[in-house]
Amino acid sequence: MGRENKRVTMRQIAARAHVSVGTVSHVINKTAGVREPVRRRVLEAIERLGYRPSLLARGLRRNQTTILGVIIPDICNPFFPLAVRGIEDIAYQNSYRLMLCNTDNDAEKEQVYFDELRGYRMAGLIVIPSANSRLVALAGASAGELPVICLDRWPEGWKGDSVTLDNAEGAYQATRYLLELGHRRIATISGQAHVTSAVERLKGFRRALREAGITLDPEYIQEGRFDRLSGYEKARMLLEFSPRPTAIFAANDLVALGVLAALRESGLQCPEDVSLIGFDDLELASFTNPALTTVAQPAYQMGARAAALLFERLRGENTPKQHIVMKATLKMRDSTAPPPRE
Predict the structure, then answer these.
(1) Are residues 159 and 104 in the same domain?
(2) Residue 315 and residue 197: Cα distance in Å, rounded?
(3) Which of 149, 230, 288, 336 has CB atoms 3.0–4.6 Å from 224's, for a disulfide?
(4) Which range of residues forms the domain containing residue 250?
(5) Rg of the Cα trace of the chain?
(6) Mind listing the pLDDT tens digit for each residue in 136-162?
């Protein structure tokens, strides 16, 4: 019966345990020592009545909850849930919980969520910024009130803590590998120009070609989005060029999936006609046909490191702002081969 009562108050617990409301509060919040027989009596009353404290109400009284806000741009992209899992594991170890918001890569939606999470007295925020993010201004208005960590990307002008990948080096490794295989007509489908990870990957791609003395046709660089449809649409355009590229570097694995679909539709074989490299190393990358050569980034570890950094801030560690850059690794599979003979 008691467990069905969702509106049990501390006053009811106090009456059942024959103690004061203050004693009940001390037992629940562990704010003062209570004699063991009295503590057991209060806990028994809590169990019998089915009392469940309101974490939000408790947080509002203390002006801070034990909840972390996490804002991501695309919940359908498997990379982001992997990073969130890393955040959640560290949060759980520290007896914190997460509130997750998805912005659909929309800066206005990101701002709404930021303001609402701040209003809910989140302990801190971890944000994977949207394209055209306003996070610099938002976080600046909350300086000293709310610790914010940028994960995976950072908006222009960001001076706060961040955990990112060496995207330029990862793209450089991928492009160098294609060059070593003998490719010279290498195209890329990049992410949006306002997303730092996309910008850095394009820099690494260009650097490898420049070092090899290759001047790239501007049309071989197609700006897209980090999704399959964009990969498909841009690949269809690239495959119409004459001469067409013998290899494509895709900005992420979802884009690479779209490229594979475009190749099949065009009657072309991967890697016999066109080699392909992705970026992320999602679980699905090893199950595509052919298995996808890709640049692996440690999504789980990045999320866990961002959460650990946030807890350093919550403990009041007044160290300089950190920009943690993690390493990428090239995973060579079956979607790459030397270019076809002409």
Answers:
(1) yes
(2) 30
(3) 230
(4) 167-297
(5) 26
(6) 988 876 666 789 999 998 888 899 999
